[in-house]
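ok trying again, last paste got cut off:
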Amino acid sequence: MEQIQKENKMGVMQENKLLLSMSLPMMVSMLVQALYNVVDSVFVSRISENALTSVSLAFPVQNFMIAVSVGTAVGVNALLSKTLGEKDYEKAQKIANNAVFLAAVCYVVFLLVGIFAVAPFYLTQTKDAEIIEYGKQYLTIICIGSVGIFFQTMFERLLQSTGKTFYTMITQGTGAIINIILDPLLIFGVGIFPKMGVAGAALATIIGQIVAAILAIVFNAMHNEYITIRVGQIRPNAHIIKQIYAVGAPSIVVQAIGSVMVYGMNLILIAFSSTATAVFGVYFKLQSFIFMPVFGLNNGMVPIIAYNYGAGKKSRVVKIIKLSIAYAVGIMFVGLIILQIIPDKLLLMFNASETMLAIGVPALRIISTSFLFAGFCIVCGSVFQALGNGVYSMCVSITRQLLVLLPVAYLLSKLGEIRYVWFAFPIAEIVSLTLSSIFLCIIYRKKIRHIGEGKTL
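nice, full thing came through this time. structure:
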């Protein structure tokens, strides 16, 4: 099969310009993603606080869905970028075909979750009949319609792996805008649209994702000259799938641990009140405005590092890591300032009651102190994945969220005041900072310093 042999821009463009060109489209699109996540909850909060709580309680399953889709795609991204750096175009084609197969398998799993597991999931968290009913309406639609998110994520990563990040900005932005437009129409029933409540919020979400997935497939077919997807060639290859999940599985675990953490925190907080759980859900929506640009930065960084690692270009790898850390720390510092200055105004966007403000204002101020360290830790985790050491990210995440955050939050809850619970977040982030620094030193000694000395492993 004839392939393009020209040097990919990831191996030759000036580092800062390359990082920005790869990352800014992703940062913009993920900011739009964060916007529609917030808008979703803003409209749902107008139904009732119980409706907002039901959506907050759905977060562990939604986050796990994202963990599986993004984690699998991260494995594809890193392996495909490294393979292109090595100029092994035949293997790159096989990786892309297996990526599509894996997206389909992942969807079938969550289709079954939507059919059989939603009601039991809510019953483990609350006995409030209204919250359970709202939750069943919302989460069932999200799971059954999740075909969009799996194929959108995978085909966007195929574009990113070959440096086509501009098109992913279009796909994500379009999906998010459709969601934002449909939210009020389907939730409240405007014009010809039926009044569907929380079910309308879920339907708006999956429609946006499906449209984005279709666009991503079209862009790959039209503009991705490095790979060509043909249905007849989509066959599972055990060796390639193993390589994908060597990086992807730790990434899935890292993100899935977030689901376990949120589930555990919901159980701790709902013992105080359902309002406390709603506050925690609102915090996750708000913090996405800060974290999403950093994740967008990482999405641009990972294929650059993986490509130059495969190509044996040490100085470019080191420069990209340093630039990424600087940008991430700067973004998180801006987020810290915002949450310290106007937490009350942010909460009022969600129709916050006096009780919700009393709980939420100190919560946002205390939790946001963890932002001081989070930017560095997030970039380190993605560096580990890009260099094929996703297990380091997994170790940091397990320690931070399961071994530190949840136990500390539980112990602090025993003091009887919900305010103390929020201090678990900065405590856990300090531990994450320590571990991330140690692992970065190890991976530098074992891999980065030896790039270019021989064939990378």
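cool. The chain has one domain: 12-450. Confidence is low (pLDDT under 50) at residues 1-5.
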